[in-house]
Amino acid sequence: MGSREEIVAAAATVMRERGYAHATTKAIAQAAGYSEALLYKHFRDKTALFLAVLNEELPDLVATTARLAEAPEKAQLSDNLAELTTTALAFYCASFPISVSIFSSRDLLRTHRDTLENGPDLPIQHVAGYLAAEVKIGRLPSDLDVDAAARLLLGACFQEAFLASFEERPPRPDLVDRLVATFAKIG
Q1: What whole-number distance in Å separates Cα of residue 82 and Cα of residue 87?
Q2: Whereabouts does the entry annotate DNA binding, in residue ranges (predicted)?
Q3: d(Cα 30, Cα 1) in Å, to the nearest integer?
């Protein structure tokens, strides 16, 4: 593992413990065992580091949905939905403690929002794309509002991540099965 990867891993740990707002580049560099100057050789600012954490240290929800949308017929609908839901829940559970502190300051939120190329609606778009692929092959109804369905599925995962973080507990073990069963009934 190189210095960049070690810095990203340390950033994930520090951001989970302190939240984005209170994770300083100095603390991240110290946790990684490097100088702050080296951190800035790899990342232009803390937001770039945060995005690297989201892309490299958390479950890859976008890649999962893209792969499922590409060939949904490779597995049963229930298996695809289970993988998608499990990944979404893991992503939100891992990212919630890191990103929630962005809302602690309107200025911090505005700055963060202005630096993002793709917003938090990107997973919705990708899940809707996957659901549209299931509609196309006839496993979900042709009149399904895929955007609304994607928002419902991800909203349930996000809400559970919030509750699990708030209550300092793991996600409910039956949630994935219950969501999959509900969505499978639609098909």
Answers
A1: 8
A2: 24-43
A3: 17
